[in-house]
Amino acid sequence: MQPNQPHTVLITGSTSGIGLAIAHCFARAGHHVMLHGLTDADTSQALLAEFSGYSGRTGFSDADISSEAGCAQLVSETREAIGNPSVLINNAGIQFTAPAHDFPAEKWHQILAINLSAGFFLARDVLPAMRSANWGRIINIASVHGLVASENKAAYCAAKHGLVGLTKVLALENADCNVTANAICPGWVETPLIQPQIEAIAREQQLDMDTARAQLVGAKQPVAKATSPEAIGELALYLCGNFASTITGASLPVDGGWTAQ
Ligand SMILES: NC(=O)c1ccc[n+]([C@@H]2O[C@H](COP(=O)([O-])OP(=O)(O)OC[C@H]3O[C@@H](n4cnc5c(N)ncnc54)[C@H](O)[C@@H]3O)[C@@H](O)[C@H]2O)c1
């Protein structure tokens, strides 16, 4: 890969929240981006229109990556739309909270499939081309819950700890060919994913949404402020830059001090 050559960037779950902010960061910097997520045709058309102002190519896929076949479909649609991905950002994820003794099996399997297995299948499918090109970046959007636990999040914590472990293995296996693998571990980020948790606090304690949000964030983070999705995008972009070539196998908390305690 020549310096300053645009990357071809596949960002899973980029129709919303953190993934969408990452996609804007890369597109703004001149890279080709593959948008992806479960959304209707109107929303995907609107997103493609929104990205048409950038200089790079943009594609979109609504492949459901909860299965190995869905992951294969996403890689094939990415190759068609923007070329072999030189950067894979495993970002798509879901949440469901309940105590382990009451956790529905269906939710366990779904969270493991989307938050962990998809990251493995996608990495496995794109790595051969990265290795041949002698350059690549894999960035897994894990969570503080890849480093520490919280109650009621058995599946989410298991999946995110797994993703951090997977990241380290990928870093070791591909250290010979300029392919790095890193995990970003955010604390609270203001996106639709955390809305149900804010609403539950507001409902249970009869609080307005702003107070409930402050309570949720402040309960875990010394810096009682949610991170912006754009901050995660900028860090992902940095990990693809020239100064980041020796950062690999790392799990980088962006968590207002949550995991420093
Ligand atoms: N929001 C936070 O506070 C926070 C904190 C730490 C980590 N994260 C992680 O960041 C990532 C993004 O979270 P977010 O808050 O932006 O969520 P979000 O709900 O805003 O977006 C999730 C994206 O994943 C896609 N997706 C979900 N299931 C899918 C499936 N089966 N197939 C294809 N796409 C699917 C959705 O369509 C959407 O584009 C997740 O992995 C999440 O665990 C979020």
Automatic annotation (TrEMBL):
It holds the Pfam family adh_short_C2. PROSITE patterns: ADH_SHORT. NCBIfam families: PRK12429.1. The keyword Oxidoreductase applies. It comes from the Bacteria. It is an enzyme of class 1 (oxidoreductase). Belongs to the short-chain dehydrogenases/reductases (SDR) family. The keyword Isomerase does not apply. GO terms for molecular function: 3-hydroxybutyrate dehydrogenase activity. This is 3-hydroxybutyrate dehydrogenase. It comes from Microbulbifer pacificus. Its EC number is 1.1.1.30. Keywords: Oxidoreductase.
